[in-house]
Structure formats: C-alpha cells, structure tokens
Amino acid sequence: MMKLALSLAAAGLLRAFLRRGGVDRDRILLTEFTSIDWQSLTFVGERHEMILRVPGPGADELAAQLTQDLSEGDFSIPGQIVADIALACPPVRNRDGSVTLSIEALTIFE
C-alpha cells in the first residue's frame, strides 16, 4: 500500500473533514491531495486541494452529508485555523455510481 506524505495541516484537515461528516474512513477513497505553502502580509499557512471518491450504494447521500454547509463548518485542527473551505466544483456522479468530490481549503497557522 502506498502512503501519501501529508503535512500536519493537511492530515488534520482530512481527519476533521471526515469526522465532521460522521463518515467511516473506509467509506471514502482519497484519490489526490496537494498542499502548497501560502502566505499574506500577516498570515502563513497552506492551500489544499483534495479529491475524494465516495463509492457504493448511498454515495449521493453520503456526499451530500459531507458537503452540507461546508463553508460554515467548524473544523478542529490543533495549531491550525481553517480560513476557507469549499467545493472546487459540483460533485461528479461517476458511471459506477460513485461520487467524486473536489475540495479546496486554506489553513492558517495559529
């Protein structure tokens, strides 16, 4: 099994996202995750893009549960503040019944 190298902020964001949706980790497939350093005049953080695939029966409902009120969600990540999070594009329903979610987020160091 190949493991992805995620920063502390990225790993925390992924865990918080799944926890917020009340979803078991084995129900979501992480297909891509990229993080790049980000900074403004007063803040330092990371910009994240993650692509997740929700397989199987009930994929539409589960995807909706994960993304409901996403931008207003409370994400608890030690040492980080989620300044912005949103769907990068509408969910995509795949031929096999799975749903692909593309999410963008900005985390800032506390």
Describe this structure as you would to a colleague.
The structure is a single chain. The chain is an alpha+beta fold. It has a single domain, classed as 2-Layer Sandwich (STM4215-like). Helices cover 21% and strands 39% of the residues. The protein is built from two helices and five strands. It has helices at 8-21, 59-67, and strands spanning 29-39, 44-54, 80-87, 92-93, 99-109. Strands 1, 2, 3, 4 and 5 form a five-stranded antiparallel β-sheet that branches. Strand 1 and strand 2 form a beta hairpin. The chain is elongated and about 45 Å long.
What is this structure, in a nutshell?
The chain is an alpha+beta fold.
- Major sheet attributes: 5 strands, antiparallel
Distance between the termini: 33 Å
Oligomer: single chain
Secondary structure class reads alpha+beta
Estimate the helix proportion, in percent: 10-25%
Q: What is the global morphology?
A: elongated
Q: Tell me the Rg in angstroms.
A: 14 Å
The count of β-strands is 5
CATH topology: STM4215-like
The ordered H/E elements are: HEEHEEE
Compute the average pLDDT.
91
**Which CATH class applies here?**
Alpha Beta
Number of H- or I-type helical stretches:
2
CATH architecture title? 2-Layer Sandwich
Pick out the low-confidence regions.
Answer: none
Q: How many domain regions?
A: 1
In percent terms, what proportion of residues is strand? Answer: 35-45%
